[in-house]
Amino acid sequence: MPTYILGVDTGGTFTDFVLLRDSQLHVHKVLSTPDAPEHAILQGIRELGLENNELLLIHGSTVATNAVLEGKGVRTVYITNHGLRDTLSIGRQARRELYNLNPPLKPPPVPRELCLETGGRLSATGEELEPLTEADLAELRAEVERLAPQAVAINLLFSWLQAGCENSAERRIEAAMPAGLFVSRSSKVLPEVREYERGIATWLNATVGPLVAGYLRRLCESIPYAHVSVMQSSGGAISAAQAGEQAVHMLLSGPAGGLAGAQYVGAQAGCGHLLTFDMGGTSTDVALLDGGELRLTSEGRIGDYPVGIPMVDLHTIGAGGGSIARVDAGGILQVGPESAGAAPGPACYGQGGKEPTVTDANLIVSRLRADTFLGGSMRLDVAAARNAIGRVAAPLGLSIEAAAEGIIAVANEHMARALRVMSVARGVDPRELTLASFGGAGGLHVCALAEALGMENALVPVHAGVLSALGMLVAPRARHLSRTQTGLLDDSRETELKHTFNELAAEGRTALRNEGVNEKDIETHPSIDLRYRGQSYAINLPWQGIDATREAFHQRHEALYGHRLQQDVEQVTLRIKVQGASLQVPLDGKATLEGVIDTAHIHRGETEATVIPRISLQPEQDLRGPALITETVSTTWLAPGWQCRADSTGNLLLSRE
Question: What are the boundaries of each domain within the chain?
């Protein structure tokens, strides 16, 4: 194990670092460099004094996410069977605006001229309906050479049953084209049913793959003394070399790190049932950790596209510290989704920003301290914040302070609505959960959001401002593998299902051993997608044998939808999670608390609030609001009517009086 282990989370505004050195944690933040994310990482490594030291770096990257959201993927050719070149354009024929008779046209994922058709068609049972001939392969080669793409995505019907035709097409194209061509085939990316979702995942992997591979290559070349791993969307780490080939698995890289951190800290704090919100500079991510386990979904989305690969189940909204406030044409105050980002950032950062943001509003109402931001290393500009907030205060006829309160209230409502999506809308009573707040801005809003959902308890974890980077340290090396195997559950044999699970497990174990994971530390967790016969969508459940899993499905269906059916249960896809051991990181609240201020008081209207450094809170000491609890990387606003107790590792346990 290297002497230094560094978790890095690249966010929209800040890049966060958590360093494990000599069994002690050290934290750091620098402003992100969106045009070249590796620059901020290199700056942080220099400032932490880690250059030319043996280093294990686990990284949460937004390169794949930003490329998809901004439509900046590389030129990609899409190859499918005859008659199916428009599959990705047609999609599921769902309209976002149901009653709009003239919806705006959106460009297809892949221009039609870049969609190629060929033979190699299979039936739903794997029988050959149309061969992939030598003439087909020669024509594909000629067309790909003519179109000169940077990447190729291959998605043939039912290739998850037999991958031979896709393999042949991949070999012929790679042999004919330059070595830098990125080829992605569906039988490797997502060997599952649903040709549209499988095609989108394969195309996404291809169109952002060269960008991710190039970024990771530049990063690794810049720090040759480091071993680099990358966080996947499923909450497990993977080597940088493998990550470059599986870019689609990095679309929720950063948020997955936050949930891994919340899971780890929540277990340490004895809080197993969490509703989490991660509020950063650009967005807020909301998730449910019921029973302390990361919930995964294969029905997630990125922008307008479904993503069929396993990823953490969360809901993201454009509400963060950098979210811009404005008054719309109807005279209504709006907040987000536009963000000031890292450049220029909120007006109070003093980098030329003029637009009013949530961070500026929190500064105006004294929930942020101008002289102690980032431990005093970055002084906030109160005058610039007042000028920015004045741009919405004037048209609303409000004072600057009242406008700032309004901006915070609107942002809170956006986040409360997102929290209801992940709890109430799923049949979960949030009052039975603990609200876990993290991200640089989360602690400023935690009490208001808990009150909005009627919740009595909240948790602000130790290192909350950099929890995603901490999650990079504690996330295990992992693989999630799947294979569609349809049929009635009762018609299946335990031995056949066990054989498939064993094959998937062997593949995952080999991959982890190749990354240096000790065989004795590897665990496997099989699961299966089930549905009633005739249904379109399935529920994933842990595999417990046919009878026990069938009954668990009935119970889960009833819990989700209020009823169970006297109908045959159908299996769809077998899945397995293969993971190594998690790194045990000592939690110590002192690691984040350098450069804080002494106890003082502020006045907010008629309310006097204590300002106290988090480091000065002793274990089991009670603190009553109103109070500001300050630290290097975040601030917690303890509202009136709330009390706080610090546990032995520095977590803040909040409760309503």
Answer: 4-68+214-250, 72-208, 476-579, 593-656
